[in-house]
Amino acid sequence: MSPLSGPEYRCLRTINLYQTADLKELVTQAGVGRQLQLISKPQSAAQTALSVRLCEDGYPGWIALADFKALELAPTAYQPPSLTRSAIHSRLPQAIAFAQQAMAQPNTYLWGGTVGPNFDCSGLVQTAFAAAGIRLPRD
Description:
Elements (H helix, E strand, L loop, with lengths): L7 E4 L3 E4 L7 E5 L4 E4 L10 E6 L5 E5 L6 E3 L11 H20 L9 E2 L2 E2 L1 H11 L8
Antiparallel strand pairs: 1-4, 1-7, 2-3, 4-5, 5-6, 8-9
């Protein structure tokens, strides 16, 4: 993965990321506090989407132009947590407990879902580990 460049923004609310600029196919979600990097700026008044990447893993997507107001300039660049094997091991029960609680809630499978209660399979795993302070790539 090539290093990201340009300003980073922090999500003030959940923002949906889509596969293409037509905003029809959800690929993932960025919850409150996650950081995005803007890849493209609006080229015309008719443009309704912006190309972005998640700073955690470089995962690409498109956000609605209207969602830009739900971002603030990040005070610092994203830095992944540095965890030892034993630190990760000690946090596994917390990740498992999160997943069990999430599965016990009424939900609908949502392709690309990473914000409860509606997850997809990798989104649930990613979010459960994030709740324990362990960041995993989207796929």
